[in-house]
Amino acid sequence: MFLDVKHFQIEYIDIPFTIENKYLTALTLLDYTAREKFIQKAKVVRKNTSGMVEDIKNQARETIESAEATAYLINSIALANYSAIIEGARTDGLKIAFGILGVASQEYKNIIDYIRELKGNKNINMTVNFQQRIAGTL
Fold first, then answer.
1. Bridge partners, residue 116, by sequence
2. DSSP 8-state code for residue 130
3. The organism sits in which domain of life (predicted)?
């Protein structure tokens, strides 16, 4: 090894093998330590990133569930409003029809309402036939 210093010159210094080996071992350990620190930091970053990914997935699931619940609520309200409007129109129409037909008896009004409910039932098959006469007891 050569070293130049102003006004002083040393030409060759013999460094013993053990000292050189210790110096190289120290440098190797420094590199190994830096490598291990980098690996540990990478593991921490991966762990934090996976945690952030799970948080985002949870937020997405919560948002979807909230949106579905809101949609169900809006649909239920719309269906209730629809039913209220239909029933209000039916009531008004029946009042007008009963007035025109002169039906004042509550019994006849109930019969018409009962027939309408039977007609809406899917388990009942109701037909009207004026061409056939049925006589006898059932």
1. none
2. S
3. Eukaryota
